[in-house]
Amino acid sequence: MDTSIKNVYDSVIARDPDQPEFHQAVEEVLDSLGPVIEANPEYIDVVKSMVEPERVIQFRIPWYDDEGNLNVNRGIRVQFNSSIGPYKGGLRFHPSVNLSILKFLGFEQVFKNSLTGLPMGGGKGGSDFDPKGKSDSEVRRFCQSFMSELWRHIGADLDVPAGDIGVGGREIGYLFGMYRKLANEFTGVLTGKGLSYGGSLIRPEATGYGLVYFAREMLSTKGKSFEGASVAISGSGNVAQYACEKVLDLGGKPVTMSDSSGFIYDSSGIDREKLSWIMDLKNNRRGRIKEYADKFENIEYTESKPEPNSNELWATNVDVALPCATQNEINGSEAQLLVDGGVIAVAEGANMPCTPEAVECFLENGVLFAPGKASNAGGVATSGLEMSQNSIRMNWSREEVDSKLEEIMINIHKNTFETAEKYGFSGNYVAGANIAGFLKVAESSLSQGIL
To answer: Is 134 noted as a catalytic residue in this protein?
Structure first.
């Protein structure tokens, strides 16, 4: 790491020593920027500015459960960088949510949004509230209390949140309804909305579809494709479901899906009928993936183990791996399992699901590796398209949105690939994505006086 860049990283550690997830995200980006700073020394001031959020808002969220008991959760919104557009990034409702995780996600979002080519800055937010096991009434009361604090800090031209883990269509609806009531206006302040009140077609599918579009482009650089390829997918939520669907569209064979309790391995492949069953299980019945093994024949089910290096999902022999569950789900040892199994390509569907050791393992072994800021940018790209539709008071067709999404992902791949080549990182999509995302923000920041 360049000395001046290392000084910036050291200052991040000294300022916030108890934020390991944020440190990991910053280090991963700064490691790529040496050649850029050498060619453009004035950009070091942008680096110093970019590692500190423009604003962090924290607030309490009191709400009553169905038994009439008062609960108090913590809400946070990290508005990280707005140099190329309004803050844009999801809200996460999960017990693990803390400032370190939201800063890591917000920092990543700055580069991801830059890569889309759309005018969006980066932000992230959420709460340590757990929607699992809560009634619709409890979730509604929580969302209304959450928005009663957040609404004064967001707006269609200021900060446009979306969904993330624990925040789906139900939660977005409750949040939007409360914002509309408090602000006394109907505007595109949230994305991921229902179609009846300003949402966009393809938005639920966008992250999964975009992931597979990017992986397809990556495979094509080696003369490969999804046709006949076996694919390991982790997770079973929105991203995993639609990644599975698009893999099927392109002729691949998905063989795994998972949740926090364990994973299933289906050697015959998860076909469209089985995928439809999983969607009903997860989206409507809120069941566990274990039920798949009870429903279908010749399915291997493996429970999750608390020990490190124990995720046997990645020991399956596959051509392509799409981690779509959560951060740091593949470590160095598990990456080696994939390498030993002959994996050709790994594309991140979740935010930072691979540890630095895992990424190093893939790169050292010649595996095509796509970082999430590039490969899972389809979700926020389509959120940007939803913002555009809200602004012009129009709805585009499913085909129009899907075509725009595919074009955006092709362009992200092209930009990432060519930038890596230009700065001496041939084939390294991590460096290419970091540098390409940084350059747009850096140029904009300098032009505006690094405010």
So the answer is: no
From the options 3.30.420.40, 3.40.640.10, 3.40.366.10, 3.40.50.10860, give the CATH code of 3-186: 3.40.50.10860
Q: Please spell the DSSP secondary structure of 47-87, one letter per residue.
A: HHHHTS-SEEEEEEEEEE-TTS-EEEEEEEEEEEE-SSSSE
pTM of the model as a whole: 0.90
DSSP category for residue 341? T
Instruction: Determine the length of the chain.
Output: 451
Q: Where in the chain is the domain with CATH 3.40.50.720?
A: 206-366
Span 395-407, pLDDT tens digits = 999 999 999 999 9
- Tell me the pLDDT tens digit for each residue of 70-94: 999 999 999 999 999 999 999 999 9
| Active-site residue, from 88, 103, 112, 124 | 124
**Which tokens in the block code for residue 184?**
């006394």
State how far the Cα of 194 lies from the Cα of 190, in Å rounded to an integer.
Answer: 11
Cα 411 to Cα 420: distance, rounded to the nearest angstrom: 14
CATH 1.10.1240.10 holds for 206-366: no
